[in-house]
Each structure stands twice: as structure tokens, then as C-alpha cells.
Fold these 2 entries.
Entry 1:
Amino acid sequence: MENKKRKKNSKEQEEKVEIEKIEEEKKEKKKKKRKVPILTIICATFDILVLIFFFVVYGPFPGFRNWWITTAMASGHHKYFANTLYSKATIDEVLKNNTVVESGANTNIEEIIFDGSEKDSYESIYEEQILKRDEGNDLYKVVEIDEKDYKGFLVVIYDASRVSLVSSSRIQSNGQKLTALAKEQEAIVAINASGFSTTNNGLVPTGTVIQNGKVVSIGGRNRHGGGLIGFTKDHVLMLTTEGAQAAIKDGMWDAMTWGPFLIVNGEPNDVVGNGGWGVANRTAIAQRKDGIVLFLVIDGRGANDSEGISIADMIPLLQKYKAYNAANLDGGGSSMLVINNELINNPRGYGYTGERYIPNAWIVK
């Protein structure tokens, strides 16, 4: 009897073990089914990223394409960023749809009426930022620009007669950093000026440079629109498409070539799309109708959490501060502001940060 009972228990135990074994095998099979090979995951992820890339780069929405092409084509040495991804026809089409249509007008210098009087009330916060001077400083004031996508500085210069264009003493080698150039010139405020090319003869400023009423340099062709940007003997910011000799005859004293012009005689130039220069670090020079000069420097490429600014956004920004004549200067890694021998902004180029060697600068002395 006991033997039968033992056999029965033993058989039940064996059946139980067998059932548990079968259940365990089922679980293992389920695990194997759930487990996806790592290589498969990598390949699937890569395919998804490729699809996203092609959708962004070549898809129906032009935002990325416009930004990428205009930013790359505006640079001096990185046009291959656009040429690698897009055909010449596509690039030409994008540039056509993102440009500044300049009026061709020149500055009417008689419209600038110098008014150094201070006010007790202001029509806007922007007027207050300009006209309310810092205590003990009647020469300049620094206004911080802090918008959603871009940050930088606007320097308000109350005495236009203190503004001049200076060239680097080392222009025939590799130029100078703005801090060194400003210190050499004993400048209080300085910003970068001309674009340039690098040759065996040093840095060659783009286009024509005029100093003290004489042509001191004739460089490569200007492909940036605009024309001569400078000040007359009477300290009026003159923007002109005339040649150097005609400009000098009209009173031009210090000038350099660049562009595009942004505002001429109070009228902004027409901007199609983003203006054709993408989003980047930018420098601009302007003058109000009351004679106050404005230096604008905006950081870009992620410096100081600033992506940069487009031409399309720079014009309304300057209009807020009542710029009557305004022009774009060299930008990108060249955009720099120095005050009292200190670099104030955060210049950043492709693959480098810090100051760039430049041929000349606008200074306040």
C-alpha cells in the first residue's frame, strides 16, 4: 500500500517537474521572441535618421533649406556646406528668394541735424535707452540687446566727431586683433569694419578704403551689395553707390566698402525672405537723424546663447532705435566690440572662438 502511495507521489512529482519545465521553456521562447538583435536596432535607428535627414534637407518645407544655404553662401570660406547638399540651381533659386532689394538711393546728408539736447520725457523705452545718458559719461552708452534668438550690444555714441576709420599697422602681414588695434589707436570704443581676403601681401580689405579724404586701398570686388559706408568731414554717415572720387568730392572723409545698405534716408530697403545672409553674428553701423551714431554687434553660432540675427530682423531692430541711415558691416567671426581695451562680446566662427585678425576698424577716440 505504501509502495503504491510512494509511486503515486513520485509520479505526481515528476509530472509537476515536467510541467514546470514546459512552462519555463515557454517563458524562454517568449523572451527570445521579444529580444531584438542590437544590430537590427542600430540599422532601424540609422534608417529613421536618414529619413528624417532627407525630409528636413529635401522635403516640402523650405525653412531649413533657406537657412542652411543663405548662411553658408554668405560665409567667406564655407560655401561648400551648401554645395555639398544642394545643386547650383537650387542654391540660385534660394538666394533669389532671400535677398535685399536695395533702392539705389544715396544718403541725403542735409537731413541729418545734430541735436545734443537731453530730454526729460521719452516716447518709448527705446528712446529712453538712447537719450538717457549714463551719469558721468557724455560720450557713449552701452545698451544690451537681449531678444529670444539673439543677444548683443548697441553702443550709442553722442559725439559723431569722435568716430573715425583706422587701419591696422600690420595690414601687410596678418592684420591685428581688435583689442590690439584699439589699444594701439588709444580707442575708447571699437568695432570691426571691412571684409577682407588673405593674400601673400597680407590682409586686403574688400573694395575701396578712404581715410582722411584719400583712397588708401583698392581691394577685391564687393559681392555684398551696398557700396561706400563712411563719414563726411561734417560727421554725417554717408551711404553711397558712387565711386570713391565722386564720394570724396561730396565730402566723404573716412569710408570702407561693404553692404548691404539697410536703411537709407529713413527708408528701409526691401527684404525678400531672410535677406539672403542667413542667421549669423553681425555688425552694423548707423546714425539717427539727430546725429547720434549707433554701433550694433550681435553674437551668433551659439555664443552667449545667441544663434545670431538675419538681415530681415536687423532692420526692424535698428528702426526701434530710430536709425535714419544704416549699413551692414562684415560679420561672422569678425563681429567684435571692444570698449576700454576689453573685448565685450563673444566672437565665434566656424571651428574657433575668440578674436579674429582684421584689417581695419571703426573707433571712437
Entry 2:
Amino acid sequence: MSGDDLPREVELAVVGAGLMGAATAWAATRRGRSVALLERFAPGHDRGSSHGSARIVRRAYPDPLYVRMTGTAMRLWRELEQDAGEGLIRVVGGLDHGRRRNPERLAAVLAEARVEHELLPAAEAARRWPGLRFDGPVLYHPEAGTVDSAAAVTAFVRRARARGASFHPETPVRRIVPQDDGVRLETERGTLTARRAVIAAGPWLADLLGGLVALPPLTVSQQQVFHFPRRDPEVLWPVVVHKDTLSSYSLPGGRDGGPADGRKIAEHDAGGATTPDTRSGVIDPVARERITAYVREWLPGLDPEPFNETTCLYTSTATDDFVLDRAGPLVICSPCSGHGAKFAPLIGEYAADLAAGLPSSDARFTLAAHLAAAGLP
């Protein structure tokens, strides 16, 4: 995907072309806005949080706010699929279990939101999904599965460009200068002015906005992901969130899972702190051993030897709520705390709303709320 000539002026500049920035460009161009989308790396890079072929989409959350948001996000994913003319969502259903996951509580929240679900005893869940092990109640809800993250980024960008957006990969932003009537972005390929700028730069966000906006503490961590072969390729499993001794998740791996659709498995938020420019990209052998032992105990339908492994970055807030707010001409978009991918088209809508002058979609996402949670003025 080649880039375009950098315009001198647009209504909206979006910095960062991962899931959130690309979704913002798509949302804004659907409203007729002129947009420039800037990305510091080449298209499809694996330096941030949006690469790979599978992320979980699901409705089950213990928080009613996020349950409502998942419903809207699902509708928007379908709109993107229709707009792009390709399938991005793979529906396989979702399972939640484990003492620290509290399936009964999840079932109550889904019942209140009128989301289809079942609460199953362990024996019934094991009968339905051979090769998975359970030791307590299991929540099943059918409206869950995976989204092809890398393909979604490409689709967002392609459809935004079709509506007039310009795309600028390998164009690092070196300086952001708020002005009375907008913002100036100084890049390695020239200078661009915009009425508003959405900063959706993931783990690079704090570096770009340092000194310009009072940000809450943001933690960047390197997470480790493994793929395991399935013993019986005919057996299909839902996505699984399991919180017991480990806080883990597993899902069909898509392209990254190879031709036999190997299973993607990882711990949630177990990586060590790092920075986007100093991350090692090296798998911790202790983490590999921990996940391998977990597979032997809880997923006997897998061969417990990983055939593929990689790392990715989380950028997290202390509360795990997103950051979606405006400060002058700047819109601060996300830190998604390891659970934001499923919301990408909705976060794009929220960011486009903020750029249009509307308030934050929820008070919990404001800078003030995050600063207060951190005990900062």
C-alpha cells in the first residue's frame, strides 16, 4: 500500500494508522471530512498493537458500559465488512470460566442487557467442546469470535482513501504545535496544518504529547503470544477467556495459526514494562513454560508444544478504561489496555465525534477522570 503526497492543509489529521487511527479515518471520511492519515512505519508493520490475523470480539463483560459498547461495535464491524466487500469477523461463540472470571456475574450482566447466553455446568461444557477442561460453571454466548486485525486495518485505510483521505506511511511526526486556529504537524516529509488532530499513536502517544497535554500514567508492556497445534482439526472451539491461576485467553489463530488453524493462546497483561523503542521482542522462556503447562492442564485437545510465538504491545491505563478526550485542537485516542481491538470502529466514531466538537462518549474516558483516578490534579 503506497502513500500519497502530503497535503498542506486538511480538516482532520490522524496520527497513527493502527486499528484506532485507521478506524478514525474511516469514520471521519464517512462524514465527508478531509483527512490525512499519518503512520511512522510501513503499512502492515508489527511494531505496535494492531498486527496479526486474530483478535477476540465478544459481548461478555462484567461492566454494563462495555457490554453496550460491544453491541454497537459489532454493528459497525458489519458495516465495515459491507463497505469493504470482505469478511473480517469470524463468529465461533465465546466461553468464560474460572474462579476469577465469575461466570454467574457475567450471566447476570448479559441478562440485564438482553444478550443471548447460557450458563452451563462444567460437565455439559466439556461434552459440547471436547478437548477443553472446566472445573466450574461456564458462560457461553454465541455473539463472539475473532476479527482479522491486520485485514481490518487495511480495509479501514482502503475505504477511507476511497472517500478522499490521504495516507502517509513511513511519515513520522516529529513535532506537534497547537495553534489558535488548529494544529501544525511537522513530519519528516513536510509540514501539515489541520483544524483538529487525533493522536492515536498507541505506545508512542506519551512521547508525542509530552508537555502538550496532561496525561495520566500509561504503562507500555510487551505481551507474549503462542500458537499450538490442534490434535483434532475437525473439532471447533469458541474463543475462551479463563481466569483462574492464570488470566488467559485463547482463540482460533487465523492465518497466523497456519493451514490447520492452530490455537492462539496468551496471558492477559502478564508482560514486563518496556517502551516501544526499547522492547526486546524476545520470548521469556518462563512465560513459555507457564503457558505450555497451562495447555497441558486445561486444553488437552492441543499438542502442548507451540509452533509459533511472537510479541505485541499493550498500552494500559490504571483503570483499564480508554482515554478518549479532547484538549484544545488535539483528540487523545485510546490507550486500549489490551482489550480495545474489538471496539475499533466504535472508538473511531468516538474520536471523530470529539474532533467535531462533541463531548467525550463517557465521563470515564476523559482525561480528568483518569487523572483523578491516579491522584493527579
